């Protein structure tokens, strides 16, 4: 049985990767580091701190702690400039219907995201009320693939890991779910997410009924 569905945010509910890219790109330009969309793939599901470390590694640069922190703040300010323009129509296709169907069936819904901006984004998209629990970058200490974020989601929804299904677009997120003893639906391409129980391109042609059948 499925008692709770735990959703990653970035890349699952909304495509914020493009805004993360624009902000990191602007920062990398300022640092004189070449940063491409391919490089951006490495930052999916990765924390803000680790993301900047990866970019610095790409450019073979180091920063003082003070500069590191001020560049992180700068990136986030730029990121939020883009994010604050977002409207409900940026919710990825099929997501809203999927959330509504889960509610109708009494399945609990939780967010499991590494982002410290998660609440702000859910509010902008007007979907905060669909979530029974919100676990985000402000409430976890260990990054995916550590299962902490999803285990807290299970706890907050009063369910066991075996009763949960996780939706993830990042490899580290799929691993986090598996490490937590949960079933997982990969959102994206089979190639990167092969460890998931099933992989679908998105929610556009995927219903709660399809989910049940696939996991039966
Ligand atoms: C998600 C995204 C990452 C992002 C991280 C932290 O996991 O996939 O690209 O770096 O959240 O987000 P934040 O909004 O706190 O910078
Ligand atoms: Mg993601």
UniProtKB/TrEMBL annotation:
Binding-site list for substrate: 8-10, 24, 43-48, 51, 75, 113-117, 144
InterPro entries in UniProt: B-phosphoglucomutase_hydrolase, Beta-PGM, Beta-PGM-like, HAD-like_sf, HAD-SF_hydro_IA, HAD_sf, PGP-like_dom2
SUPFAM superfamilies assigned: HAD-like (SSF56784)
The organism of origin for this protein: Sediminitomix flava
Keywords: Carbohydrate metabolism, Isomerase, Magnesium, Metal-binding, Phosphoprotein
EC code(s) of this entry: 5.4.2.6
Any one GO molecular function term: beta-phosphoglucomutase activity
Sites annotated Important for catalytic activity and assists the phosphoryl transfer reaction to Asp8 by balancing charge and orienting the reacting groups: 113, 144
Name used for this protein in its record: Beta-phosphoglucomutase
Catalytic function, reaction form: beta-D-glucose 1-phosphate = beta-D-glucose 6-phosphate
Catalytic center residues: 8, 10
Reported cofactor(s): Mg(2+)
Cofactor binding description: Binds 2 magnesium ions per subunit.
């Amino acid at each position: 049985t499925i008692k709770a569905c735990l959703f990653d945010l970035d890349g699952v509910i909304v495509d914020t990767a493009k805004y993360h890219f624009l902000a990191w790109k602007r920062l990398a330009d300022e640092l004189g580091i070449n940063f491409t969309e391919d490089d951006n793939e490495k930052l999916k599901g990765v924390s803000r701190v680790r993301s900047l470390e990866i970019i610095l590694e790409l450019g073979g640069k180091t920063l003082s702690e003070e500069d590191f922190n001020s560049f992180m703040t700068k990136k986030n300010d730029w990121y939020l400039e883009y994010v604050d323009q977002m409207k409900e129509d940026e919710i990825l296709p099929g997501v809203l219907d999927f959330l509504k169907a889960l509610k109708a069936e009494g399945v609990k819904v939780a967010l499991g995201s590494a982002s410290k901006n998660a609440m702000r984004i859910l509010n902008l998209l007007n979907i905060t009320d669909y979530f029974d629990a919100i676990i985000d970058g402000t409430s976890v200490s260990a990054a995916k693939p550590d299962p902490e974020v999803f285990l807290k989601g299970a706890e907050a929804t009063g369910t066991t890991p075996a009763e949960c299904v996780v939706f993830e677009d990042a490899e580290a997120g799929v691993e986090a779910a598996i490490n937590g003893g949960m079933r997982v639906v990969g959102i994206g391409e089979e190639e990167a997410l092969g460890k998931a129980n099933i992989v679908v391109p998105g929610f556009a042609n995927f219903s709660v009924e399809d989910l049940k059948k696939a996991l039966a």
